[in-house]
Amino acid sequence: GVQIKANSIILSLNSSIIDDLTTNLQLTSLEADDFSREAVDCFIEASYTGEVEAVNQDNFRDVNKMSHVFEVSWLSTRCKEYLVSYLDKLDSESSYPDILFAVEEAVYMISALKKKGFLN
């Protein structure tokens, strides 16, 4: 995979998982091959700035997954807000790809919630 340099202290401030990996296990690097490069960049930028400017259709699912894997609750909340805002903007003039993205991501999130036992 591609190596991306980031300050572990900054990442640890946002994620107890990363804190545990870098402090207790003394890891100096993390594998993020399960996520797109764009999503990893977005995750790191969000960790540094506290803002989520770069979430888009292309990286939404991976950024959302990363927020759950590394337990960054504020980023998970921002991802949900992005999707809700995206859904709110859909109307009869929306393109098929826009509608398909929204439906697929909503179904994916509902499925994830069901797997975690939040929905019956």
Q: Strand share of the residues?
A: under 5%
What is the typical, i.e. mean, pLDDT? 84
**Overall 3D geometry?**
globular
User: How many angstroms does the end-to-end distance come to?
Assistant: 38 Å
Order of helices and strands: HHHHHH
Q: Treating each run of at least 4 consecutive H or I residues as one helix, how many helices? A: 6
Can you describe what's shown?
- The chain is mostly helical and 120 residues long.
- It has helices spanning 8-14, 16-23, 37-49, 60-69, 73-89, 96-115.
- The radius of gyration is 16 Å and the shape is globular.
Give a brief outline of the structure.
The protein is mainly alpha-helical. The protein has helices at 8-14, 16-23, 37-49, 60-69, 73-89, 96-115.
Characteristic key phrases:
single chain; 120 residues; 6 helices; mainly alpha
Tell me the layout of helices and strands.
Blueprint: H1 8-14, H2 16-23, H3 37-49, H4 60-69, H5 73-89, H6 96-115
